[in-house]
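User: I need a structural model of FAD-binding domain-containing protein from Periconia digitata for a docking pre-check later this week. Nothing fancy, just the predicted structure tokens so I can convert them on my end. Input:
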Amino acid sequence: MAASVATETKIVVVGGGPVGMTVAHALTKAGIDFVLLESRPSIVMAAGASLVMSPIGLRALSQFGVLPAIEKVSSPLSIVKRFNHQGRSIGDAKLFSYLHENHGCASRVIPRQDLMQVLLDALPAEAQSKLLPSKKVSSLENTDDGVIVECTDGTSYKGSLVIGADGAYSAVRKHMAIMGSEKETHDGEQQQQQQQQDKDLSYLTTYRCFWMRFPRLPGINPGDMTEAHGPQATTQYFANEDSAVVAVYERLPQPTNRPPRRYSDEDEAAFVAKWGHLPLNDNPNYQNREGIKVLTLGEAYSHNIQKGFINLEEGVVENWSRGGRVVLVGDAAHKFTPSTGAGCNNGIVDVVVLVNKLHKLFSSASVGTPTSDGSIVTTSNIPESDLAAAFREYQNARFDTVTLGCNLSSRATNNASWGTPLAKFIDLYVLSVDVVLRLFLHWAASKTVLTPVFDFIAGEETVRGKYPWVHKIPQAQKMD
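Assistant: Understood. Predicted structure tokens for FAD-binding domain-containing protein:
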């Protein structure tokens, strides 16, 4: 049985990362009541590596008025310097320069903590009061008119629906699958349901990642980006105004979908000893005017101020919702390798599509519009069938796009770590050709311009490039 209900609201959001905070902003703009539950002790914490924000994510966030603040605490990206494990150049890539040209907005690298602070500061005080840290979910319980979310501290929260924005190890996804398996079924159906539950809960892990942040040392310039490619491992390195971050992706001996492994200090030390020679800037034989030689992973490690060692899950969950009461966004529904920086940005676009649909449903209900079953409803009792239909439309709108993005990200990591002879050939002799990159980004632009925006938030279009967006930001009505 559920504990006493502490709060009753329209929507319970689980997860207070960048995607969850995007949900909070969107629901605030839509005028939909919510409460957000975050398992960590604080909404903004010095946790996680830097994020690459692309035009699709920045454009959506610009509708909250936060783009100038993001620009102040981030660095634009342009040319990616690419070299092998010995520091020899394998051809620079003007990927971010062409993205800027195509879409009118520079991709930016930003510390996760800084992005979270910007999003928090931009929320109205009333909305900030709905962000509750130290709330770890223990169960979800269906009711006749909604869902009760129970937390390990004994509190519980009831909503018409739950949005799971709680990442790759999503508690919402786990309990959503359990909710589905609790239905009465015959033996054969129960076995099939268990197989589906296992499928919904598992991501494949092919790589592990060691990342760290360190001060911006002499010879490092804000906006610098490099990658070291080679057998079994690849690096990505970004520099901000006051710090730099590097991630090393190492291929595991065999892919696995087992629960994530927790790495020890000994594991970390062995990893750095193995890969400490990898260069983070130009040729190891190079020395600049100040006498600063090439920066290696091992040298940077001696200056580290923050670090982490994790497995990298990837995949797309088959079912993003359960009935009309629980729905997933971001990493809870799909997980990319970090190579293309697409994960967070796609999570933000998930929120765009989902909240556009919720806004229509809740707006119709608030004025007493008949629903699909012919009844007149209030915002607190929208029929589950209407919500279920909206969730299916949301997943259908996003599924193929994120599946393609996930595959492209996986291929990028495979190419950079020379997973096969063909991958090595593509990395060295195809992706280094500028005209090939331009053609690829031309094809990608034809799909990127289809990215939606919040259709209920009026504002000015500040992101304009070579390729016009299909979905325009609604223009504010001018007063006579």
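Before docking, keep this in mind: The first helix runs from residue 18 to 30.
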